[in-house]
Amino acid sequence: MSEGRFDELIHPSTRLSLVATLAASDWAEFAFLKDRLALSDSALSKQLSTLEAAGYLVTERLSAGRRRTVRARLTDTGRDAFAGHVAALQAIVAGTGTDTRPF
User: Candidates 1.10.10.10, 3.30.70.2860, 1.20.120.1460, 3.20.20.140; correct CATH number of 13-94?
Assistant: First the structure.
C-alpha cells in the first residue's frame, strides 16, 4: 500500500475525477474524458495542462487523415501521487488522519 500523501493539486473534484479515470486506463482520448467528466473543451484542456505541467500526465496529439485527436495518460509520477492521495483520504476516513487531542 502506498504511503499517504495528501496532494493539493489532485484534490479538487474535477482533477481527482480526471486522474482516477486515467488511473484505470493506459491512454484515454480527449472526447472520452470530456464526456465521462461532463466538461467543456476549455475546462478539460485547462485541467490537462495543469496536470501535465506538474508532470502528472502526458498528452499526445494524433492525426489520422483529417481526423485529429488528443489522448492522455498518467506518468509514473502521476500514478504515485494518485496512490498517495487515495491512501491519505483512506486514512482520514478511517480516523487515523485526524488529531483527536483537544486544543
Answer: 1.10.10.10
